[in-house]
From TrEMBL:
Alphabetical UniProt keywords: Membrane, Signal, Transmembrane, Transmembrane helix
The protein's name: Uncharacterized protein
Organism: Lentinula aff. detonsa
TM spans (from-to): 317-342, 363-384, 390-409, 421-441, 453-471, 483-504, 524-548
Organismal lineage: Eukaryota, Fungi, Dikarya, Basidiomycota, Agaricomycotina
Signal peptide: 1-21
Signal as UniProt keyword: yes
Amino acid sequence: MPLCTLTALLTVFQLLVSVSAFRQPYEYLTAIQSFADAFTNPSSVINGTMTSPLAEDVVGRIDVTTTFVGQELNTEYLFGLFVEGASETSTQLIGSPSSYTTQSLVVEPPVVAVSLVNQLRYPTIDSSFPLQIDLFIAFDDDLKIISYDAILRRWSEFFTYLVPLITPQIAIELNSTSTNSTELISMKTAMDVCAMSTEYCTDANQVYDSNDACMEFMTQIPFGNPWEGGMDNGWCRYIHKNMVKYRPEVHCPHIGPTGGDMCIARDYVQVTEDMPFNITLLSYNASYNALDMKNIPDHNQDELVAIETEIVYMTTVAFYSVSCVIYMLLLYVLAKAVEFLFGRYSLSYGTMSITNQRNSVTYVMAIFLTGGALTLQLISSPVLNNRYTFAASGMLKLTALVISGLYIFELTYRISMRWPLMTHHFCTIFAIVLLLSVLSYTRHPALMGAGEIWLFQATTEQSVFVGLLMYRLDCSPKRTRNVLYFAAVQSFIFKLGFAAYLLGFWAKHLAQFHSSPNDIALSVLLVVLTVLLMGTQVYGAGAVWGLAKKVDRFMKNPSISPVESSKSHSTLVFEELHKV
Ligand SMILES: *[C@@H]1O[C@H](CO)[C@@H](O)[C@H](O)[C@H]1NC(C)=O
Ligand SMILES: *[C@@H]1O[C@H](CO)[C@@H](O)[C@H](O)[C@H]1NC(C)=O
Ligand SMILES: *[C@@H]1O[C@H](CO)[C@@H](O)[C@H](O)[C@H]1NC(C)=O
Ligand SMILES: *[C@@H]1O[C@H](CO)[C@@H](O)[C@H](O)[C@H]1NC(C)=O
Ligand SMILES: *[C@@H]1O[C@H](CO)[C@@H](O)[C@H](O)[C@H]1NC(C)=O
């Protein structure tokens, strides 16, 4: 038996842990933001202040250059290139990213499509120019980039725009009198590449016989078109010059006569049709792997895609909520534990009818659970002042689950229930379902505030349960009477107060729901439910008051026990009503 319990606990724990591997879309937003921050602040990645946003076996492709495999290489190209460029004092053909704005963004975990407008700084001419970069990015379970496909939008146009603006400055730096920008760019490229080669590509890594040989080669070859950054030309070698100092053995060939495996002739059709990524960028397909798909017919694979991309609304028939099922089990265990403790430590409990025993158990459960719910509500109360947070929304949904679950449990656990209490429970559950559903369809945040206020009606009646429990357990009549009087007045005032608050809040913050004909249903239901609930609550407060009076009468005439006279009208009313 203990072994079985342990196994069950471990299973639940495992479930909850594995759930944490599933990511919410907002987590991808954060990951994209860190990537963009790193891109505009590359030295922090290179010097290790910021952890790399790239996975170990990342594969990346940039349309104007080529494909890069592995974390080290990609870090060098995405970050190192810009760090080195920024450290140069002469004019660079590639600017330093300084800031960005996000222009478009779609998240469908684990793939994100994002378009960033980056400002590229050219300090020697004291200017910045915008460059739009479109990216498809797939993330792994640790939110590291595992595949990315980048398109430098309008790169050719950018470069054509840039060249006449930087060549006068380049001419000054080169002591040249030329005004021919083709010549100036070619000379600049040759000077910069050869300086790197002469400094870093030495001994086994040497690729040119001498600096002169390098200059001669570099001024002979064409610079190339802006989109030919992965081809056999001066532009490609210029891009690769910044990485040479990181790993000369890898990068020297790229700036050498052969171009290594980077600056080479490429076939357009092959480049276009190639799919170099290990992890697909098709979001709907990304969560299935080839092994899972083995032996599944094509048609059923399509069905799996439909399942994978289903959005679960409050009313979608989906997998049941694990937390809800676990909560129901917990309620059962709690009830059994309270029964056990009562049986062990309370004399009066043994003499009660089963109906009253069960009622007493539910009072105890209600005191603790509504107390917990009330705490969550108080913590999340800033939503009433438009201070919405993810945590507050989660806590309010949890409160709704705690209360509606408790009510459903009570409906099944109690031996009998009178109609006012039943009406109260049904109305409350319906109000919760209604608000959560409308919230999930309309996403109107003020509905959270309405839920917060409404739930207070169910979570501020602990005094009633305490009074009823004292009554049931034969506590001192004087104290019981006082608690019951207090409970009747307190719950009446609170319920009336929160009902008024709710209606005021609805009038002020939920105008959409009483002015737009499409959304009017919520308002009608809200008002009807509030009135119905109010009715049962006034009745309930009255019953508690009646009970207090009864205890009072007993104190003046102790010959009749208040508990035994449970056939009297007020007790009957109260017995099933205490809840309201
Ligand atoms: C790393 O780079 C960041 C950003 O440029 C800088 O603020 C920080 O001082 C650097 N840290 C070290 C240890 O160089
Ligand atoms: C340009 O001329 C200046 C001063 O005459 C000199 O210091 C500099 O090295 C020259 N630059 C080049 C690239 O020749
Ligand atoms: C600039 O120089 C290139 C190469 O030397 C030459 O082909 C081109 O005609 C020149 N352009 C102008 C406008 O003189
Ligand atoms: C990922 O893809 C690259 C190039 O497409 C390949 O070289 C590498 O071996 C692949 N890695 C894995 C783990 O499949
Ligand atoms: C989707 O993934 C499966 C398994 O990895 C693969 O066999 C299939 O070709 C993929 N479909 C597409 C359109 O990429």
